[in-house]
Design brief:
Blueprint (H helix, E strand, L loop, with lengths): L2 H27 L6 H19 L29 H8 L3 H24 L6 H8 L2 H8 L9 H12 L2
Helix pairs in contact: 1-2, 3-4, 4-7
């Protein structure tokens, strides 16, 4: 056992024993009569459980708050399409949130799909791209922000168009 792990275990046991001792004192104050051994073991177990839970990996909640990530760091992949369904409901009726949380990731998915499925070349220019794209996808990629209703039905139209690429 390495020294830092041994120190951590010793700390957990010591704090657990102190916690158990406090539990025993409380049981005496309230005339419950819990045995000292039970209180000490329970204190160590509670402390060990708390330490184990504290060491578990945590999820980043940054994706839950709108606008929490810089635009450059938000990336989507076609595998994220099903995860976007929860964003549809949250953005219903909120135009700004719809743009950030639904339309932009769908536009990223459309561009990725074009690159992987159609072999699009970034050098063809806007006129060449428009000639090869479904008008729905072209509007998704080029229309100004706020041009579309913030409704799940609009997102469903885009998803269908992306799937047909």
């Amino acid at each position: 056992m390495n020294p830092s792990r041994a120190a951590k275990v010793a700390t957990v046991v010591l704090v657990g024993l102190v916690l158990g001792g406090l539990g025993f004192v409380l049981s005496l104050l309230y005339d419950v009569g819990v045995p000292l051994a039970v209180c000490l073991v329970a204190g160590v177990l509670i402390c060990a459980g708390g330490t184990a839970l504290a060491d578990l990996p945590r999820e980043d909640a940054g994706d839950l708050a709108p606008g929490s990530e810089p635009v450059a760091q938000q990336r989507s992949s076609f595998g994220d399409l099903h995860a976007l369904q929860s964003r549809f409901a949250a953005a219903d009726g909120d135009a700004a949130r719809f743009e950030d949380r639904v339309r932009r990731p769908l536009a990223d998915l459309a561009v990725e799909r074009l690159r992987t499925r159609q072999g699009s070349d970034d050098r063809i220019g806007p006129e060449g791209a428009q000639a090869h794209l479904d008008p729905v996808i072209w509007q998704l990629l080029t229309a100004p922000a706020g041009s579309f209703p913030a409704r799940p039905e609009q997102a469903a139209v885009w998803v269908h168009a992306i799937e047909s690429l």
